[in-house]
Amino acid sequence: MNILISSAGQRVSLVRAFQKELRNFFSDGKVYTVDLNPILAPACHVSDGYKQVPSVEESNYIDALLNICLGWDIKMIIPTIDTELLVLAENIDKIKNKGIIPIISNSNFISICRDKRKVNNFFTERGILIPHPIDKSNPTFPLFVKPYDGSRSVDVYKINSKEDLLPYHYNNPKLMFMEYIDPQNHDEYTVDTYYDKKGKLCCAVPRKRIYVRSGEINKGVTKKNVIINEFLDKLSFIEGARGCITTQVFLNKHTNQVIGIEINPRFGGGYPLSYLSGANFPKWLIEEYLLNKEIDYYDNWEGNLLMLRYDDEILVRNYDE
In angstroms, rounded to a whole number, what is the distance separating the alpha carbons of residues 226 and 185? Predict the structure, then answer.
């Protein structure tokens, strides 16, 4: 009953969480990792073994991944980056036919999540507020510009005046113009949610983003607030959603209105805070997919738990470029 975490990168805490939970059920269970450049991926050095894989954009990616999985007797794959999600979803039958379960939402839901225009429609259809779109030909300021398929805060701009708008902003078809959500009046949250095999919401943990570095939470705190009720009311079921789904929202400090921003159908970089608060997604994935247990709704995680991250070192002996 071994598990593979793909594109492991810096997800040391995630690897360790899966190692701990897997060994509570299977004492000899192993958590392996793969990465495009594993020797430079800290999480690979704390896993039970690692291998290099080709880029997810290469035609042989799935076959290479399957060969590794079969050699390590992998039963479950945990993806961690956006670019691999759709490839895995489109090959889910091929993977399952080898006795391996990829924890992945269906391709339709992933396609929605990968396009922020579709995400906006998704939120609107469920009665969740979104930032108002801004007409490029008649903009009001300040406004916010971001690509509809971006990640990690790349190509994201706050525009304060017409003078700040460049031809690049107007001419790039991927850039969306939208209302600027003032952080003076709003708090930004990432909500870690667990959806079971049937798309039912089993847990929701709002994490307030106090400080973000390179698009990932560096300081944050869990909060039991109105966001949970919003999710229970409007997102208690999502067709095709499975496993950990992370959703970014803003919460108005004065009105308690929730504004939906984006959805990532995978573990987010800040999930370790939710795990340490008691929202044990690795355990539930093992129980649901390897032991065929049903997962009940869980809300007994710890609120007001503050996480302060810091840099640590992984040393690799005899490294030779």
Answer: 16
Per-residue DSSP letters for 163-224?
Answer: GG--HHHHH-TTEEEEE---TTTEEEEEEEEEE-TTSBEEEEEEEEEEEEETTEEEEEEE--
Radius of gyration of the chain (CA): 20
Decide: 7 and 81 in contact? Cβ < 8 Å. yes
Lateral strand order in the sheet of 258-264:
258-264, 243-252, 186-195, 201-213, 216-222, 306-308
pLDDT tens digits, residue range 235-279?
999 999 999 999 999 999 999 999 999 999 999 999 999 999 999
| Token representation of residue 290 | 């390897």
Closest CA to 195 of 291, 301, 289: 289
| The 74-78 sheet, strands edge to edge | 50-52, 31-35, 2-5, 74-78, 101-102
Average pLDDT of the residues in 147-153: 77
Neighbours of 257 (CB within 10 A): 15
**Is 299 within 8 Å of 321 (Cβ atoms)?**
no
Distance from C-alpha of 295 to C-alpha of 280, rounded to nearest angstrom: 11
Distance CA 164, CA 95 (A): 48
Q: Would the pTM count as exceeding 0.70?
A: yes
DSSP of 283-299: HHHIIIIIS--------
Do 104 and 85 form a contact (C-beta atoms < 8 A)?
A: yes
Residue 11 CA to residue 268 CA, distance in Å, equals 10
